[in-house]
Structures are given as C-alpha cells and as structure tokens.
Amino acid sequence: MKPLAIKDDIYWIGSVDWNRRNFHGYSKSHMGTTYNNYLIVDEKVTLIDTVAEEFWGTLKCNIANVLGDRKIDYFVINHLEPDHAGCLALAVEKYQPEKIYTSPMGQKAMMAHFHYKDWPVEVVPTGTNINIGKRNLTFVETRMLHWPDAMLTYCPEDKIAFTNDAFGQNWATSERFADEVDRSKLEELMRNYYANIVLPYSPVVIKTLKALEEMNLDIDTVCPDHGLMFRGEDCAWAFKKYQEYAEQKPKNKAVIVYDTMWHSTEKMAKAVASGLAEEGVSVRLMCMKNNHHSDVMLEVFDSAAVILGSPTHNNGILPLMADMLTYMKGLRPQNKIGSAIGSFGWSGECVKVLTQWIEDMNMELVEPVKVKHVPDHDTLSQCFDQGKAIAAAIKAKLAE
Ligand code: FEO
C-alpha cells in the first residue's frame, strides 16, 4: 500500500500484514493487521514509529516515495515492542537521525532491546514540547498502555494524536479511515483487541482518558499504530468506546466455557444455559475444543457471568481449560459472577479446581454443581436451577 497524505505534509507510511495471526497468544483468525507509522514533512522531517522488521523494504520504499532524497531529521519512538520498533536499528543506520525522542521508560527499553552505544536519544517526559518547524509535538506518557514505555505524540497545529497501540484494531485493510469501513466490524475488532491486550490495564485507560480531558487537547484525528485511523466525530467515538470498555460494566449476558470428555459436562452446560435463557439472559456456550481462547475472551469481556466446566481429569481439569484459565486470569476481567460445573468418575476434583480459579479472579461465586459419571434428569434439573440462580445474581448486579 502506498503512502497516504492524512493532512498537508503528514503521511501514513505503514505496512499491511495480511498474514499476521498471533500477537503474544492473541489471535484473530483471517484478519491480519497493519503496522501504522507516520512521516511529518516539516523543517525537521520527523518519523513517528517504525514497523515490524520484515517490512523494512516497504518502509524504505514508502519513505523514498514521500521524501525522495531528503533526509529524516528526527525519530519519535512511542513504543519499543518489535511490531513498531522492529526496524529501528536499521533505520538509525540508514537515516542517521539528529535526534531520537522517546519516553523515560522508552529509553530504558530501547537500551535493553538494542544495546546501542552512540544513538542521539533524547528523553521526553510528559509535557515536553519540541518544535519541528511550522509544527510542535507534545509528548504524553501512557505508561502501561500496554507497556511501561508507551507514549502518545500530539501535534496541536494539525490536531492529531499519534496514539500507538491505544485505539488500535488488528485488521488488515486497504482502507485507512474508520469512516470507510463497516462500523460494527470495526467496533467488534476494537473491542476484541481491547479484551485480549488492553484489558488488564483498564484502570490506566481511565486515568489516561481523564488526564487527556484535563489537558484539553483539541483532537480531530486519532492515528493508532494498528488498523483504521479516526477523523472528525469518530475521534470522540473511539474515546467513548475506550471509556466504556475500561469501565467493564456488566451486561445481561453469560458465557459457559467448558471442555468435555464423554459429553456429561456438555449436557450440564446445556442445562445451565437453558436456566439462564429461561430468565432472559443472553447466553453463549463455548467448548474449548472448537474455540480459540481469544474468541472466548471477547465473550468473557462482554458477559456478567462466566460458568466454567470440566470433568475431572488426572485429579485436575482438562488441559484446554487450564490453558484458557491461565489466559483469562492474566487479562484480569472485573465485575464478574462465576460458577462451575463438572462430571467425575472417582476422585472428583474438577469443581474444586475450577472454584479456586473463580476465587483467584475475584468473581462472585454462585454454588457449583458436580455429577458422578452421567447426569440424570434430577442432576440436569439441578443445573437448570443453577442457571436460574446465576441469572438472579446477574439481575442483582445490573441493579447495583
Ligand atoms: Fe502493537 Fe505493543 O505493540
């Protein structure tokens, strides 16, 4: 994809990675991603972020396409993760910038990644302003959104915020702006990205949004480093969505996440789902044999209640559930009700193990149900009632 002028003398020069499927365990099938980076052509030509190393050739072409033989004076590095800083060492060598601006934590991460000796790095804590000619750039640290080094770069003259990972979506497209694509798809992918990457840092999101509001920045273009950019009223839409995601308010929805050996736990899951649906709760059943943990996490993020199911296996739970729970706990979902179901043959630890996970994730526990071998009518009826009890807990939570 060729460079795109997003304002006078400001260009998107990113790369589209149609084949990317996995970011540290987060996978959104068939969607790919983009590594957005930007070039500002002013008295001091400024490059904002780079791209993943395998796109070094594309980056060089895009820069040459915009600049011809003109040099780059400044680099701004908002985040050191290799999908954005992967070409940094190559770019420093080729373009020999006068300055490399990064956050205080960015400088530490840059040293730890590149072990550089004589790079012209200048640390820019929050509030630092630099002049690049007709424009100024102001830096705002966004620590732990989602790495300690993250920062945002704001250009007041053009009302642009370069937000790095924040407001991103993993979606490889030929379109560049949010107003050019299907809104519901965009929202789903932005939510998916949030649920699988940003979620543990929700308190930081709330604090950062408040700080940005207090700084009263006039923003009419939001440029994340992944996916579509936002312009005009879509900027406020993106900020509002992040506020909503970060608050994690419960919805009238439950997800049953389970694995099953000989279908007993699955029968129990279906009975719990019937009890929930009977009380008007929207419910999803997700068997770990058929669903990726990233897709499950999106449903967990949206749900007021999470019901975990596994038979007892080798005195514990089935491995796909252990994988899911490790992933889920790390993402620290808040404000959830939890419950457990499971069948067993002899030792019967499954429900105890699942309950421990529920407690470790600070979920409000609704009485679990376990069944020896195969559920009969009475035990399925018990599961149905468990679904109704979870529905009542959801209603109480929604009323808080
Ligand atoms: Fe898109 Fe944290 O890298």
- Per DSSP, the total helix count is 12
Radius of gyration: 24 Å
At the third CATH level, what is the topology name of the largest domain?
Metallo-beta-lactamase, Chain A
Q: Give, in spatial order, the strands making up the sheet with the most strands.
A: 1-2-7-8-9-10-11
**Straight-line N-to-C gap:** 49 Å
What is the β-strand count? 23
Derived from helix and strand composition plus strand pairing, the structural class reads: alpha/beta
Proper CATH architecture of the largest domain: 4-Layer Sandwich
List the helices and strands and how they pair.
Elements (H helix, E strand, L loop, with lengths): L3 E4 L2 E3 L2 E3 L4 E2 L2 E2 L5 E3 L2 E3 L5 E3 L7 H12 L6 E4 L4 H4 L2 H8 L3 E4 L1 H11 L6 E3 L5 E3 L4 E6 L9 E5 L4 E5 L18 H16 L3 H14 L5 E4 L5 E2 L1 H15 L5 E6 L5 H15 L3 E6 L5 H10 L2 E5 L9 H12 L6 E8 L5 H11 L3 E2 L3 E4 L4 H23 L1
Parallel strand pairs: 8-9, 9-10, 10-11, 15-16, 18-19, 18-20, 20-21, 21-22, 21-23
Antiparallel strand pairs: 1-2, 2-7, 3-6, 4-5, 7-8, 12-13, 13-14, 14-15, 16-17
The structure holds MU-OXO-diiron.
Family: In the N-terminal section; belongs to the zinc metallo-hydrolase group 3 family.
Organism: Pseudodesulfovibrio sediminis
Protein name: MBL fold metallo-hydrolase
Descriptive notes:
By secondary structure, the protein is of the alpha/beta class. The protein folds into 2 domains: 4-247, Metallo-beta-lactamase, Chain A, CATH 3.60.15.10; 251-392, Flavodoxin domain (Rossmann fold), CATH 3.40.50.360. 38% of the residues lie in helices and 22% in strands. It has 12 helices and 23 strands. The strands form 5 sheets. A 7-stranded mixed sheet has the order 1-2-7-8-9-10-11. Helix 5 packs across helix 9, helix 6 packs antiparallel against helix 7 and helix 8 (264-278) crosses helix 12. The radius of gyration is 24 Å and the shape is elongated. The chain starts with a strand and ends with a helix. Bound molecules: MU-OXO-diiron. MU-OXO-diiron is lined by residues 79, 81, 83-84, 146-147, 165, 225-226.
